[in-house]
Design goal:
Elements lengths: L2 H16 L6 H12 L2 H12 L6 H6 L14
Helix pairs in contact: 1-2
Length: 76
């Protein structure tokens, strides 16, 4: 999936969770990503944010909460 599309989807989630009073927005976005996105999608989003892709501050913050298995390798 194109990275700009991943960032756009994460930004839409950020817009939603920004308006939810019960959960910190970055954790809400990460929770949704952890539940529904594949590991390659998660890794791609993380890689692009770390490489400096333009993104909503909530999306930037959410990568701290995104889960990847310890043995996950992009090449494998």
């Amino acid at each position: 999936m194109a990275t700009d599309r991943l960032i756009r989807m994460a930004t839409q989630m950020a817009d939603f969770f920004r308006s939810q009073p019960d959960e910190p927005p970055a954790e809400g976005v990460a929770g949704h990503i952890n539940q529904y996105w594949s590991y390659p999608m998660r890794q791609s989003l993380i890689d692009q944010i770390k490489a400096g892709a333009e993104a909503d501050p909530i999306v930037r913050d959410c990568i701290a909460f995104i889960q990847l298995p310890e043995n996950y390798a992009k090449a494998g």
